[in-house]
């Protein structure tokens, strides 16, 4: 049994910082389906593509009654610049605080590259039902086609 929330568990209601200076929590979306996509870093090729893909489908998520929130450890000011630079329509939130949502979900994890270990975000997406329960999890996401796959799963929920 995992110590981290899994399918069927409640999504932790941990607040995140928004680029507008406010706070947002998964609990704020009660009564509505929610997609939380966690990505490593603003303005890197894969993360930019993922954010553009979710933004391109924003209208379809809206029609399906699904809120979408992109999350990384980048500070809110960097999110604002990233969103403006690429014309992103999906709202972003910062999970910079230690003990934040990505820590609670177990996706802020040790990674390694070129023999160096470091802490980083595991690219992961959560689909949360209207009751706040985790309905589906995609771990170690491959970006190509992912946003469309999540949209189909959200429509079917």
Automatic annotation (TrEMBL):
InterPro entries recorded: AhpC/TSA (IPR000866), Peroxiredoxin_AhpC-typ (IPR024706), Peroxiredoxin_BCP/PrxQ (IPR050924), Thioredoxin-like_sf (IPR036249), Thioredoxin_domain (IPR013766)
One matching Pfam family: AhpC-TSA
Top-level EC class: oxidoreductase
Residue ranges of every copy of the Thioredoxin domain listed in the record: 5-157
Catalytic activity from the UniProt record: a hydroperoxide + [thioredoxin]-dithiol = an alcohol + [thioredoxin]-disulfide + H2O
Keyword Disulfide bond: yes
Entry annotation: catalytic residues: 47
Any Gene Ontology biological process: cell redox homeostasis
Keyword Lipid metabolism attached: no
EC number of this enzyme: 1.11.1.24
GO cellular component: cytoplasm
Gene3D superfamilies: Glutaredoxin (3.40.30.10)
SUPFAM superfamilies named in the record: Thioredoxin-like
Gene Ontology molecular function, alphabetical: thioredoxin peroxidase activity
Domain of life: Bacteria
Assembly behavior: Monomer.
Role played: Thiol-specific peroxidase that catalyzes the reduction of hydrogen peroxide and organic hydroperoxides to water and alcohols, respectively. Plays a role in cell protection against oxidative stress by detoxifying peroxides and as sensor of hydrogen peroxide-mediated signaling events.
Stated family: Belongs to the peroxiredoxin family. BCP/PrxQ subfamily.
Protein name: thioredoxin-dependent peroxiredoxin
Organism this protein belongs to: Alteraurantiacibacter buctensis
């Amino acid at each position: 049994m995992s110590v981290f929330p899994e399918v069927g568990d409640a999504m932790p209601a941990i607040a995140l910082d928004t680029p507008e200076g406010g706070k947002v929590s998964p609990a704020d979306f009660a009564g509505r389906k929610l997609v939380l996509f966690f990505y490593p870093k603003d303005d890197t090729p894969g993360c930019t593509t993922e954010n553009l893909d979710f933004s391109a489908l924003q209208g379809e998520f809206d029609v399906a009654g699904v809120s979408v929130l992109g999350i990384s450890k980048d500070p809110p000011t960097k999110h604002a610049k990233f969103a403006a630079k690429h014309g992103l329509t999906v709202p972003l939130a910062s999970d910079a605080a230690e003990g934040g949502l990505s820590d609670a979900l177990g996706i802020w994890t040790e990674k390694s590259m070129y023999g160096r270990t470091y802490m980083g975000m595991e690219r992961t997406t959560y689909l949360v039902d209207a009751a706040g329960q985790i309905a589906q999890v995609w771990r170690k996401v491959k970006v190509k086609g992912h946003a469309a796959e999540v949209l189909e799963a959200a429509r079917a929920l």
